[in-house]
Amino acid sequence: MSMFKPPHAGMLIKDVIETKGISATELPCALKLQDSTVAKLLNGELNISEEMARRIEEVLT
Q: pLDDT for 9-39, tens place per residue?
């Protein structure tokens, strides 16, 4: 039996920014992060810290 592997948070954030009409180039500016950091996040290469989760929440809500 295989284990369920939930999607990385970056994939979920991609869906939300698409729905809200925020581009992947606008997001780094809004989060005050480097483009490369946000790209790694959206591609599942970077885990989300508590602080980053708060920043993302502020921008996306």
A: 999 999 999 999 998 789 999 999 999 999 9
pTM to 2 decimal places: 0.79
DSSP letter (8 states) at residue 24: T
Q: How far is CA 21 from CA 1, 53, 59, in A?
A: 39, 19, 12
Q: Which residues of 29-53 are buried (b: 16+ CB within 10 A; e: fewer)?
A: eebebeeeebbebbeeebeeeeebe
Handedness of CA 56, 41, 25, 28 (dihedral sign): positive
Helix (H, G, I), strand (E, B) or coil at 6: coil
